[in-house]
Amino acid sequence: MEHIRLFEDLGFHQIKVSLKSSNVLSTIKAYELLSRQVDYPLHLGVTEAGTLISGTVKNALGIGILLSKGIGDTLRVSLSADPAEEVKVGYEILRALNLRHRGPEIISCPTCGRCEIDLFQLVREVETALMGITSSPKVAIMGCVVNGPVKRGKRMWELPVAGTRVCFSEKGGFSAKSRKRTWQGC
Predict the structure, then answer these.
(1) CB burial class (10 A; 0-12, 13-18, 19+) of residue 18?
(2) pLDDT at 185
(3) Is the pLDDT of residue 115 over 60?
(4) Residue 160 contacts residue 176 (beta carbons within 8 Å)
């Protein structure tokens, strides 16, 4: 608060405040306290969060909890990784909170004994193929036909997979194909 008052005393009132810490709980508590004391825009982030996986978890929790409470105006995801990954993580945090939608949302299963293909590779290939899409359909990629049909919903594309057969539905339509041919009405 001392630094904010110093700026105010010098006539600066267009201030954006950042209280980043590498500790998620400290970051959340600090922003909660400050949001009750000032009406300035708050720039959220968990600084020096770490590698792609640990940093993603820290950022998702810290930024996500604050945004879910209505705290925060801008954000920066901090990772020891390619800055493009920071942007992707930020978009996914906003998407998970239903605050922004851009590009397809991939919904995929963790696989089980019913999965007969390399689902992880298929998910990577589909995600790469859809990278340029700016609309925001949900794309469900399931390892078997047991889970696939129940995941279908509004604006969802579906890829339940069984063996070499891939089923695909879009807006209620449904077809199935293998690497060699396509079937309609599957």
Answers:
(1) middle
(2) 35
(3) yes
(4) no
**What CA–CA distance (Å, rounded) separates 118 from 110?**
11
Per-residue pLDDT of 156-170, as tens digits, reads 555 555 544 444 444
Whether 48 and 26 have beta carbons less than 8 Å apart is answered as: no
- Give pLDDT tens digits for 1-18: 899 999 999 999 999 999
Does residue 46 carry a pLDDT above 80? yes
